[in-house]
Amino acid sequence: MPTTTLTSRTPAPTDDGEGALNDLAALVRDDLEACNRTIVARMESPVTLIPSLAAHIVAAGGKRLRPLLTLASARLCGYGAGDPAAARHIQLAACVEFIHTATLLHDDVVDESALRRGLASANAVFGNKASVLVGDFLFARAFQLMVEDGSLEVLAILSQAAATIAEGEVLQLITQNDLATDEARYLDVIRGKTAALFAAACQVGAVVAGREKPVEMALARYGLDLGIAFQLIDDALDYAADQAQLGKTIGDDFREGKTTLPVLLAYQAGNPEERSFWERTIAQNEQTPEDLPRAIALIERHGAIAATLGRAASLVASAQAALSVFPPSPLRAAMHAVADYTLHRAR
Fold this sequence. Notes:
The protein has helices at 19-27, 29-43, 49-58, 65-76, 88-111, 122-126, 128-149, 152-175, 183-208, 213-237, 243-246, 252-255, 261-269, 272-283, 291-301, 304-322, 330-344, and strands at residues 115-116, 119-120. The protein has 17 helices and two strands. The longest helix has 26 residues, at 183-208. By secondary structure, the protein is mostly helical. Helix 2 packs across helix 5. Strand 1 and strand 2 (119-120) form a beta hairpin. It has one domain (16-344): Orthogonal Bundle (Farnesyl Diphosphate Synthase).
């Protein structure tokens, strides 16, 4: 069996704004290292291309935010207290990461992305066919981990999240290039493609701990609001960040004709000439090299980035409020700070 060249430790973030992630990871360090070892072990296959391609994307600098939320949520709910052998949350955190990684592989093929986290995307290195098939392998591994856990409730939560992610991606495909998309429809897209997995990652932490339904739903709310805010920030950064910060080519969303919130807000506020610009570049996807700088200027002119960040800030506050069902603790404080980190990414 081939050896996967991937360290079992999560790469330490280098941006000072990621201190909140470092703090949360430190509180569940042993769990996170065990999760990373599980990820490495479950990526293995006698088909050598599978671990090679999987390692390429998993080792590309991801912060393990989603599995980290599973581990932290379980511990926040008291899972494993006094039982060093308790490991369900570790298996499920690895499952969450596999679902996330599989969607990244598929998304990069659909979006024809050349970069992922600042490095060549897997499809750029290994080709589209291999990326899609290895994504399928990782989905299968995720479902194996769900079955091994043995909880029908966990299986229901994570399988529903996987289906919702696919629905969100298809809905994004339908609304792409459609400037008639309203904000509610846009939010439906990002709830599906991004926030559903955040919510499920947190919710299963409460389930394995056997906590009551209100606590479970509070963690799901925390994850959902955090996930929506996270995607709002990503969509804003596509028009307001440098490539090194974003980890992908600036303006990818624009070039792909995605109707993200900054574009929708600028379009709705624009005069007839500006709307004509958006209709040509987004609806008809007819673009010149000079169009991206103009798109950024129009978005800035109408305050679309500030408005998007304002919506994200409200969601972060809602996510933090959901944690109030738990008594004060270092874990609660760290999860509260991680929500603030989401906003820090845009500074």
